[in-house]
Design a protein that fits this description.
Structural class: alpha+beta
Strand content: 25-35%
CATH topology of the largest domain: Methylamine Dehydrogenase, Chain H
Number of domains: 2
CATH architecture of the largest domain: 7 Propeller
């Protein structure tokens, strides 16, 4: 379960981030198919050391301090990623955190302090800490064992809130968050609302005042609104769980709200909504082919700046001419890269700009708002040579029933795309999608000579409501058929060697591995399943207490083990009940502390495979949760996976 307690299930379910960079990866626009997959002659890349793909970066996740005098970054300290600070006018940096147990992945500036979160061994119960920019006064802010803290609003650019955050803490009941004001210097907590109604989403206005809340009720989600801070919540709109209604921000008058919604439509669009009349005022912007995803509202200017979405590349439409001009200038300067403005100081003098593409790890630049000049701030992965990396190309193919499936194909550099060993790599979630950009796992496999195919099977997000709902109760069925059809497409194009095809995935992608080797046992030479469910009954029942009010939605999307008809279907797709069909050797891995897919899911299928004499390798890490986070564990995993694939796929005769 996602312990952020998201307002709708479609946000994510069991998604493993295979890319640890704290940026949003995007996708490249191309309609080319197999005949255009290699546009230019390139020499084969040398074999690159495995650790080069996965070791911690020298200086990554850069952020500017609010006063513009400092910048921070994450870098390695004794094998773990910690936070460092440096003056923007100097070259000397100092470390402000000292974690040698688990890497720090989430952090931000608040005033002159840095706030970061950390869990214990991957249990996803995040606790907040803060430290001064000079490294002094490191303190725990919400150190409650077994309790999760979520930042609702960092309250940036709000006068009087320079030292405060709005956070949600699930101390009272596990299933929902009570909102608190948190002082990042003293650690003082002030309860804002005793959440007896069990609201689980909170939205603030331009002054940081909570004005909206939502909660699920069976298969519906109801949003509640209050007209001012002292008012009481009253129902505003009730939507079905399979519709999307997400609040981006209030308008400049704190009256109407900007929403991303697909109510009455197939695609998610940007609209203005009046919470008093409970009606949509107007549709502001939409894309014909994809769901809109994110609103950028500038609190300082009190203006809607842009809306963004993922097509074959990251797309953006601007409403603010000043920000549009800044973005265009950067796009013109870095023509072959995707560019993200990663943060800026309060005075809007300096910003951090991130550039990357499908072959380049993120690089960071300082941007001067006045002069429009950029200077390189950090190249976190200088050992990675862009010319030795593979191109990732958007592709499409048709499923058996005619549905168009989008995906990405990555081929080894300088190698003819004929009869290659292949790794099929379905994404986790499953209610998310793959995107174009640099992916260490994919580049690692391509460097080893494999073609890698990623696909957005039905049920993936971003392609509209109809495509999303086409995945309901299709785990191991039509969703898996879409993956199989991708394999057949590669074979038909002559790219794949039919005898040397592997399938690898994590989380739902790991489920797809087990679905694949049981439903199509002759298709794959081997499978690698990370944190995968093997018994749909034990898996779903272990989720029920955590999912709480969302469990009925999950039953509708996946299956209800208490329903006789669904039980038959769940038994049909549970890999544990079909181990007699498995012919392919398997490599299975998991974290002992996984709160989403219990370790027992891996234990039981490994035991069943060994009993049948099927070749199986098993890796368990006692200091990990849902996916391996620590560098040493990642090294162990990829080293073992490489040897496994070499033996059973690449060198198969």
């Amino acid at each position: 379960m996602n312990k952020k307690l998201i307002p709708t299930l479609r946000k994510t379910f069991i998604l493993i981030p295979t890319i640890v960079f704290l940026i949003v990866l995007t996708s490249c626009q191309s309609n080319s198919q197999s005949e255009n997959l290699q546009e230019e002659k390139e020499l084969p890349a040398p074999l690159i050391e495995m650790k080069d793909f996965f070791k911690n970066g020298n200086k990554t996740s850069l952020l500017i301090s609010p006063d513009g005098n400092y910048f921070s970054y994450r870098a390695d300290y004794r094998g773990m990623m910690n936070i460092f600070v440096q003056k923007t006018s100097d070259t000397v940096a100092w470390r402000v955190t000292n974690d040698t147990v688990r890497s720090i992945r989430r952090y931000f500036w608040k005033g002159n302090r840095i706030v970061f979160s950390q869990d214990i061994g991957g249990d996803e119960n995040y606790q907040l800490f803060s430290v001064n920019a000079d490294g002094s006064d490191l303190k725990g802010l919400t150190v409650f064992p077994g309790i999760n803290t979520n930042v609702i609003d960092a309250l940036t650019e709000i006068p009087g809130k320079e030292k405060e955050l709005l956070v949600g803490i699930n101390k009272r009941v596990r299933e929902c968050l009570d909102p608190y004001l948190l002082n990042v210097e003293t650690g003082e907590l002030k309860l804002l609302y005793t959440n007896k109604e069990n609201y689980n989403t909170w939205v603030t206005d331009n002054q940081g005042v909570i004005r909206l809340a939502s909660k699920p009720d069976g298969l519906d989600i109801t949003w509640y609104y209050k007209n001012n801070e002292k008012d009481v919540f009253s129902p505003m709109i009730t939507v079905s769980f399979d519709d999307q209604f997400t609040v981006g921000s209030f308008d400049k008058d704190n009256k109407n709200i900007y929403t991303l919604s697909n109510i009455g439509r197939d695609k998610v669009t940007l609209s203005e909504y009046d919470p008093l009349t409970k009606k949509e005022v107007k549709e502001i912007f939409s894309d014909n082919n994809y769901d809109l995803e994110k609103i950028f509202y500038d609190r300082k200017k009190k203006k809607l700046v842009s809306v963004s979405w993922t097509g074959e590349k990251n797309e953006r439409h601007f409403f603010d001419k000043e920000w549009e001009k800044i973005q265009k200038g950067l796009d013109d300067k870095f023509k072959d890269y995707s560019i993200i403005i990663g943060g800026y100081d309060d005075a809007r003098t300096k910003a951090i700009v991130v550039i990357y593409n499908d072959r380049t790890w993120p690089k960071f630049y300082f941007y001067n708002f006045k002069t429009k000049e950029t200077t390189e701030a950090a190249n976190p992965y200088p050992w990675c040579n862009e010319k030795q990396m593979s191109h990732t190309k958007p592709i499409t193919y048709r499923a058996k029933d005619g549905l168009v499936i989008h995906g990405y194909l990555t081929l080894p550099v300088g190698v003819e795309a004929k009869r290659l060993p292949v790794v099929i790599n379905p994404h986790g979630g499953p209610w998310t999608r793959d995107e174009w950009g640099i992916n260490p796992e994919v580049q690692f496999l391509a460097n080893r000579g494999y073609a890698v195919l990623q696909m957005d099977f039905r049920g993936s997000t971003g392609y509209g409501k109809k495509f999303y709902k086409a995945g309901f109760k299709q785990w191991g069925k039509k969703m898996q058929d879409d993956i199989t059809d991708g394999v057949e497409w590669l074979k038909k194009e002559g790219i794949a060697d039919a005898k040397r095809i592997a399938i690898y995935g994590g989380s739902y992608g790991g489920n797809a591995v087990l679905f694949g080797v049981t439903s199509t046992p002759d298709l794959y030479a081997a499978g690698v399943a990370d944190v995968a469910a093997s018994n749909m009954f034990t898996f779903i029942r272990s989720l029920a207490p955590e999912w709480g009010p969302y469990i009925k939605q999950f039953y509708e999307m996946v299956g209800d083990p208490n329903d006789p008809k669904d039980s038959v279907m769940l038994a049909e797709i549970s890999p544990l009940f079909h181990v007699d069909k498995i012919k392919s050797p398997l490599f299975i891995s998991c974290g002992a502390n996984d709160p989403r897919v219990n370790r027992a899911e891996s234990d039981q299928i490994v035991a069943a495979l060994k009993k049948r004499g099927v070749a199986v390798e098993y890796m368990v890490k006692n200091d990990e949760g849902h996916g391996f986070s620590n560098q040493k564990n990642q090294f162990d995993f990829y080293e073992a996976m490489e040897k496994f694939l070499d033996k059973h796929v690449k060198n198969k005769k």
